[in-house]
């Protein structure tokens, strides 16, 4: 087998990965500009320079592209948020650091910013997707670890995780609708709300 034959599969894999990423990048811009409802597969393909048939080698429809974009963003956000929470030393920093990491991530990427701002309703419908739901599961795990370490008061971790994740998304939508995105205001509001609520719950 020649060196070219050995290298060929690697090159094909790189081309496949590049094509898939080109579709995702184009869709991110199109969904942000037009909104998911108005956007079509043709709009996405037109922004890639690829053939229409190439699109369907990777995705069956535009919804599958949106799901892939949200899953990728959710995975990155979860990693940043969890790292921030796990470095916390007390309840106040546990609450604030996670929210801050999430809001800063969303505000740092203009294209993802627009995708979320224009398509919040569709994204809400994807909350049962594993990559998104995993954020609630991970937060519940971190809350239980915090309870065991004495950092977090003894409370229902599942209820608390659901409340924090749901509120964070809704506050993020409002935050991104402001000019400029009010990261500090959002962090201060939601952190005070939950920190005060947890303290009140602990006092019984």
What would your notes on this structure say?
With 204 residues, the protein is mainly α. It folds into two domains: 1-60, Arc Repressor Mutant, subunit A; 63-203, Tetracycline Repressor, domain 2 (Orthogonal Bundle), CATH 1.10.357.10. 80% of the residues lie in helices and 0% in strands. It is built from ten helices and no strands. It has helices at 3-34, 41-46, 52-58, 62-86, 91-108, 110-118, 120-124, 130-149, 157-176, 183-203. Helix 4 (62-86) packs antiparallel against helix 5 (91-108), helix 4 runs parallel beside helix 8 and helix 5 runs parallel beside helix 9 (157-176). The N and C termini lie far apart (73 Å).
């Amino acid at each position: 087998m020649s060196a070219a034959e050995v290298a060929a599969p690697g090159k094909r894999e790189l081309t496949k990965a590049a094509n898939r990423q080109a579709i995702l990048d184009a869709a991110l811009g199109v969904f942000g500009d037009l909104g998911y409802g108005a956007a079509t597969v043709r709009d996405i393909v037109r922004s890639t320079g690829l053939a229409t048939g190439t699109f369907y080698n990777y995705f069956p429809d535009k919804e599958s592209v949106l799901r892939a974009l949200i899953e990728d963003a959710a995975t990155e956000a979860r990693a940043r948020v969890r790292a921030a929470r796990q470095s916390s030393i007390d309840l106040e920093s546990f609450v604030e650091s996670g929210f801050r990491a999430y809001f800063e991530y969303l505000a740092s990427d203009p294209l993802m910013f627009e995708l979320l701002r224009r398509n919040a309703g569709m994204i809400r419908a994807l909350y049962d997707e594993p990559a998104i739901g995993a954020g609630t599961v991970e937060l519940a795990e971190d809350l239980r670890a915090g309870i065991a370490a004495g950092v977090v008061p003894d409370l229902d971790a599942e209820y608390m995780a659901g409340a924090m994740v749901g509120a964070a998304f809704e506050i993020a939508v409002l935050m991104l609708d402001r000019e400029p995105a009010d990261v500090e205001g959002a962090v201060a509001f939601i952190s005070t709300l939950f920190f005060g609520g947890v303290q009140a719950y602990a006092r019984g």
